[in-house]
Every structure is written in C-alpha cells, then in structure tokens.
Design brief:
heterodimer; B: seven-stranded mixed β-sheet; four-stranded antiparallel β-sheet; 0% helix
Chain lengths: 110, 113
C-alpha cells in the first residue's frame, strides 16, 4: 500500500529565510502533486511533477522530483508572510489512488 | 466555466441519519475521489473511481457508500454506521489520460447535531 510521509509537520520561519519541505513515498509513481491549503479552505494546486528530475518554480516556491529516491522537495526562497499555509504533497499509486502526506503547517513570522 | 462543485457547503446530520454529499464535475475527468479531513489533520482517502459504474475503497471506507452512474457525478453517502462523521469532506477529480493536476471542490463541512 502506498505511504506518503512529509516532514517537517510544523515549520516556523522568519521572513527572508529559506527552507525545504520533504516528501517521501513508498512505491513507484508517475505523478506527484503539491498543494496549498489555507485555514477553512479547500486545496489549491501548486505543482504537478511527472518525471524524474522534474523541477517547477512559481514565485518563491520550487518543487523537484527524484523518482529513484522516491523523494520530492518543496523549496521556499526568501519567505514572506503570505506563504503561511499548510502544504501537502500527494502521490498517485499504482491503482490511481491518490494519497496525501500529513501536511506541513508553515508559519512565516516578520 | 469548467470546474468541480460540491454541495452543500455546510450540512448538519442528526444521529442515526444518512446524508448524501454531492460532487459534480464538468471537466470530462475520468477519476474522482472523496477525502475526509479532520481538524489539523491530513486528507484520508474514502473512495475513488476511475470509470463509470466502478469504484474502489480507500483507507477509511467503513460507514460510507458511493455511486458512479455518470462520469460527471460521484455522490458520497455518510451512513448511520459512521459513528464519528463530523469532518470536512473534499471531492477531487483528474484526467488519467493527460496526467494533469487534480482539481478539488470547495468542500462540505458536516456536523452531527
């Protein structure tokens, strides 16, 4: 069964600092997602990564995928308060069963 | 506009009552999913469907039922057998062919009264 592990679960950052969120998964997959969730809201799609070595960037966020290591990273550059949210990774299993990590609750402090 | 719509936004259930949550998409997506989210927690997979008239159990299917009679619709029934149904329920859909992003509805917040 597909397992998805995210760390850290909680992250408190100073504005302007850099940090990385990690997502490990247990079986081979051909699709990995990163989502953002604001309190009380649904999920907003950030990135879809489909192949080994894929890298995508949007603003201060950059996601990468290493399918051999079954690892994806979400790198935050020069954090700002508006990035405060919960970030989830999700992975497609062999049966197209999309499963989520536990989420990383990010707080960016001035 | 294309999208995925969940209704209602808020739902209250009495003890012993079945309730049905609606999820409709007009994106021509093959796959649809239902997740449960408890406060401060991640998303747990309840049921998913890849084609019409077929669906599979996820990790927490007990006390829930689904149907997929049309490609556009994937309703979730929370039965009286689900002893702790208070949660935020999220529906998602995606194309298995294009492998693009999965889209989420706005969610239904279910409360037992």
């Amino acid at each position: 069964e597909l397992k998805v592990e995210q760390n850290p679960l909680f992250l408190s950052m100073q504005e302007g600092k850099n940090y990385t969120i990690y997502c490990n998964y247990s079986t081979t997959s051909d699709r990995l997602y990163w989502y953002r969730q604001d309190p009380g809201k649904s999920l907003e799609s950030l990135f879809v990564l489909l192949s080994n070595g894929a890298v995508k960037q949007e603003g201060r966020l950059m996601a990468s995928l290493d399918t051999k290591a079954r690892l994806s990273t979400l790198h935050i550059t020069a954090a700002v308060h508006d990035l405060s949210a919960t970030y989830f990774c999700a992975v497609d299993g062999n049966n197209n069963d999309m499963r989520f990590g536990a989420g990383t609750r990010l707080t960016v402090k001035p | 506009d294309g999208g995925i719509t969940q209704s209602p936004k808020y739902l209250f259930r009495k003890e012993g009552q079945n309730v049905t949550l609606s999820c409709e998409q007009n994106l021509n997506h093959d796959a649809m999913y239902w997740y449960r989210q408890d406060p401060g927690q991640g998303l747990r997979l309840i049921y998913y469907s890849q084609i019409v008239n077929d669906f599979q159990k996820g990790d927490i299917a007990e006390g829930y039922s689904v149907s997929r009679e049309k490609k556009e619709s994937f309703p979730l029934t929370v039965t009286s057998a689900q002893k702790n149904p208070t949660a935020f329920y999220l529906c998602a859909s995606t194309s298995l062919r294009t492998k693009a992003e999965a889209f989420f509805g706005q969610g239904t917040r279910l409360t037992v009264v």
